[in-house]
Specification:
Oligomer: single chain
Largest sheet: 8 strands, mixed
Strand order of the largest sheet: 1-2-4-3-5-16-6-15
Shape: elongated
Number of strands: 16
CATH superfamily of the largest domain: Zn peptidases
Strand content: 25-35%
Structural class: alpha/beta
Distance between the termini: 28 Å
CATH architecture of the largest domain: 3-Layer(aba) Sandwich
Number of helices: 12
Order of helices and strands: HHHEEEHEHHEEEEEHHEEEHEEHEHEH
């Protein structure tokens, strides 16, 4: 009889063209956060064909359930389904049919991998220990995040998973490889909105104005001390502003200026302290210059932590599947993911799937109009996910 790994990989190769078809269909018909109705319908149709029970949650989320024939853990596998408001500039046959909406973050690949894993596992049900939950999650790209909504609707209370796995494509890692990091891995994320108010007027008479542009500029500079002078040196922190709106003219100073930014870090106590520092510095700087500043901080996802024991075990299992040279140890990332909500509740491992192939010209970064994946990587994604489930034991 063939070893289990060979049985799994044979089925992965057998269904690879189907997995590619899943990905291309989803890529062709992308839907934005909270609008994934047809994507969810498509997922449900495929699960029906596999004989996998399912239900809807969070309106456009799909939860699939597969019970094995042996006792064991309840393992959750997660993929996100939403796309981004980006106009695709690729020219392949499966280019987005919804103008201005694109799967530029790989969620089409995530969903295809999970469907492919579901297909393989459904045919190896007799080898599954316990239960597998397939979480096809909506709205990862928008606050408050589909993960939070699913948890608030009682996903974990109802199904009580012992652990959860998730993956994300990575254009910096070669196709055929994966990577992960035990412990704190991805940052929390908050959106920071500043509204600077003063007295607008003619640019040639600054003495009669309270200059909001100068005030906002000084606030922006002063806020940099939060990272450079206030942040604990052992807690990675980023405060960046990407939007500065001063709708005056060459000779008109506006009454109001707005700044929008993001705060990323890895500690909840420091995160709260940083919020207060942002408010204090912004308000006091504006006051000292004769104006005022309203501060709104929209608290987003928590930091993502990979359970150390679980992730160490996952690394070893992945090496058994792919070979030691194809499993990388990664560093922390200041990007954020709503998978973090799951990781704060139960043991979790969130890993990266390499999709880069320079010989095919597949090198574009996430969230760009030319983003694409090496579809050979889907085999890696499906194979590892199925292998992790079928090799599970309590860590």
């Amino acid at each position: 009889m063939k070893p289990l790994k060979e049985i799994i990989l044979d089925k992965v190769r057998m269904y690879h063209s189907q997995t590619v078809a899943y990905r291309r269909h989803i890529h062709s018909y992308p839907e934005l956060s909270k609008e994934e109705h047809k994507t969810a319908d498509f997922v449900e149709e495929q699960l029906d064909k596999m004989g996998i029970a399912h239900e809807r949650m969070a309106k456009t989320g799909v939860i699939g359930l597969l019970d094995g024939e042996k006792e064991g853990n309840c393992i959750a596998l997660r993929a996100d389904m939403d796309a981004l408001p980006i106009l695709e500039e690729n020219t392949h046959a499966y280019v987005s049919q919804h103008k201005g909406v694109m799967h530029a973050c790989g969620h089409d690949a995530h969903t295809a991998v999970l469907l492919g894993a579901a297909q393989v596992l459904s045919e190896l049900r007799d080898k599954i220990k316990g239960r597998v939950i397939f979480i096809f999650q909506p709205s990862e790209e928008n606050f408050p995040g589909g993960a939070k909504t699913l948890l608030e609707e009682g996903l974990f209370e109802k199904y009580k998973p012992d652990k959860i796995f998730g993956l994300h494509v990575d254009p910096d890692i070669e196709s055929g490889k994966i990577g992960m990091k035990p412990g704190k891995y991805m940052a929390s994320t908050d959106e920071v909105y500043l509204k600077v108010k003063g007295k607008g007027g003619h640019g040639a008479t600054p003495d009669k104005n309270v200059d909001t542009v100068l005030m906002a500029s000084q606030i922006l500079v002063n806020l940099q001390q939060i990272v450079s002078r206030n942040a604990p040196p052992d807690i990675p922190t980023v405060l960046s502003f990407g939007r500065f709106i001063a709708e005056g003219r060459t000779n008109i100073i506006p009454d109001q200026v707005t700044l929008d930014g993001t705060l990323r870090t890895f500690d909840e106590t420091w995160r709260s302290q940083a919020h207060e520092r942002i408010k204090d510095i912004a308000a006091n700087t504006a006051r000292a210059m004769g104006g005022s500043c309203e501060v709104l901080i929209d608290k987003g996802y928590p930091f993502l932590v990979n359970n150390p024991n679980m992730t160490d075990a996952t690394q070893q299992k992945a090496k058994q599947c792919l070979g030691e040279e194809n499993v990388m140890l990664l560093s922390v990332r200041m990007t954020a993911e709503d998978f973090a909500y799951y990781s704060q509740e139960i043991p979790a491992c969130f890993y990266r799937l390499g999709i880069r192939n320079e010989s095919k010209g597949i090198t574009a970064n996430l969230h760009t109009s030319t983003f694409d994946i090496d579809e050979k990587s889907l085999e890696t994604g499906v194979g590892v996910m199925a292998w992790l489930v079928l090799n599970d034991q309590t860590e």
